[in-house]
Write a structure and sequence with these properties.
- The longest helix has 23 residues, at about 300-320.
- The protein has helices at about 20-40, 45-55, 65-80, 115-130, 155-165, 175-185, 210-220, 255-265, 275-290, 300-320; strands spanning about 5-10, 85-90, 95-100, 135-140, 145-150, 195-200, 225-230, 235, 250, 270, 290-295.
- Helix content is about 45%, strand content about 20%.
- It has 2 domains: about 5-40 and about 50-85 and about 295-320, no CATH class; about 90-290, Rossmann fold, CATH 3.40.50.
- A hairpin with a 3-residue loop joins β4 and β5 (about 145-150).
- The chain is elongated, with a radius of gyration of 32 Å.
- The protein is α/β, with parallel strands linked by helices.
């Protein structure tokens, strides 16, 4: 089912908004008319007693029909200006591939509870933000792509693929990106504009092809790559050779990831904590699978004007036998 999220209101014919000037003009005319009635009113000594006997309404109630009539004028002016609501609607046929690094450096605990767990939680946030019709694929990698899933609307399979990763091995980012491209653009044919790749990595490429070269191919195929560099500069992991050996530094590589994003036409992000990572993925989930459209809502304002006019008439005729 297609859903739409309201974002803003604009007008196709804004000159009709000048009709709102009729409201202060009407107030001035009404004020002048009441001043004239007061000036020429005939004083009657028993007027107060007659008002009580007739059960006169509270003074504020006399102004309700007038207020409703003025509100109807405002609603009608907005309707004539043809209001349009800007909404975010799902992109039909959108396909996104999550490329997730689970090399040994993803076991670092500089991002709580550790990089890999934070990445998995952020991916859950990403999936929650996507419309159900958006197809999502996964390419998990370390020494090479070792966990792949073609784009699908089955969120359970996507989550299972993401959660099946263990932090081990080297970093073959270029190989993983190439698999993602082959998934979105079989036979090297240009993909639909709604296709994109989201790459999360925490370190430099240590094996396989150059990821920047793959990004150049992605640009030709019109597939932007959005990159997220995860981790902090002073992060380390225990030395796998010996517990007594010095720990191994595992800083992220935001420079290369930014270059990948720039070359492909995407955007680069960096994250040093789990909360920021979830925020980034939430933003990407909303941005990649939706587009902005203008939808006219004139009928709503016209209906409001009619209801307000009817209300003003119903409240004024029984009291004084005339419209406000």
């Amino acid at each position: 089912m297609t859903t739409a999220t309201p974002l803003a209101l604009s007008f196709a014919t804004p000159l009709w908004l000048l009709a709102l000037l009729a409201i202060p003009l009407a107030l001035l005319l009404l004020y002048g008319a009441r001043r004239r009635r007061t000036a020429y009113a005939v004083r009657f000594p028993a007027a107060a007693s007659l008002a009580l006997a007739a059960g006169a309404a509270a003074p504020w109630r006399r102004h309700v029909p007038t207020a409703l009539a003025l509100a109807a004028i405002a609603a009608l002016a907005f309707a004539l200006a043809r209001p349009q609501r800007t909404v975010a609607v799902p992109v039909e046929g959108a396909s996104i591939v999550l490329v997730t690094d689970h090399s040994g450096s993803m076991s670092a605990t500089d991002v709580e509870p550790d990089r890999l767990s934070a990445a998995e939680a952020a991916a859950e946030t990403f999936l929650d933000k996507l419309p159900k019709a958006t197809r999502v694929g996964v390419v998990a990698y370390s020494d090479g792509p070792d966990g792949t899933l073609a784009p699908t609307t089955d969120r359970t399979r996507v989550r299972q693929t993401i959660e099946a990763q263990d932090a081990v091995g080297a970093t073959a980012t270029g190989e993983a990106l190439q698999v993602a491209l082959d998934t979105l653009a079989p036979n090297g044919r240009s993909a639909k504009p709604a296709s994109a790749i989201v790459l999360l990595s925490d370190g430099k490429t240590t094996t396989g092809r150059d990821p920047v070269g793959v990004a150049q191919i992605a640009k030709k195929l019109r597939i932007p790559i959005y990159t997220v560099a995860l981790g902090t500069a002073d992060a380390t992991i225990p030395n796998p050779v010996s517990p007594l050996s010095p720990p191994i530094a595992v800083p992220p590589d935001p420079e290369t990831l930014r270059q990948i994003a720039d070359v492909s036409g995407g955007r680069a992000f960096t994250s040093g904590d789990a909360g920021q990572l979830r925020s980034i993925y939430s933003t990407l989930g909303s941005r990649l699978a939706t587009k902005h459209e203008q939808r006219e809502v004139t009928s709503a304002f016209a209906a409001a004007a009619l209801i307000l006019l009817l209300g003003a008439g119903m409240l004024s005729i029984p009291r004084v036998g005339r419209l406000p």
